[in-house]
Amino acid sequence: MTGNTAVLKCQVPSYMSEFVMVTAWVQDTGMHLYPNTDIGGKYTVLANGELYINNAGTNDAYKSYTCRTVNRLTGKSLK
């Protein structure tokens, strides 16, 4: 629905969720979206790793997003 806020959640297996932290979201265009507190823009990545797409429209429906994560214990990046 145009004009609403879309919420994307990184899918992490439950057995790993307490050890994994979302560090960024990557749009298929190559744009990186990092956690922030600026809630006035088009994209907001919250501390819990959720990506909010404000005022979502038809152009947003054709984009794909991938979350980037890191293991809190090892520091190893995961995709």
UniProtKB/TrEMBL annotation:
The record ties this protein, via PROSITE patterns, to: IG_LIKE (PS50835)
Where is each Ig-like domain found? 1-79
Which residues, if any, are the signal sequence?
Answer: none
Q: Which residues form a coiled coil?
A: none
Concerning InterPro entries, the annotation shows: Ig-like_dom, Ig-like_dom_sf, Ig-like_fold
Protein name per Swiss-Prot or TrEMBL: Ig-like domain-containing protein
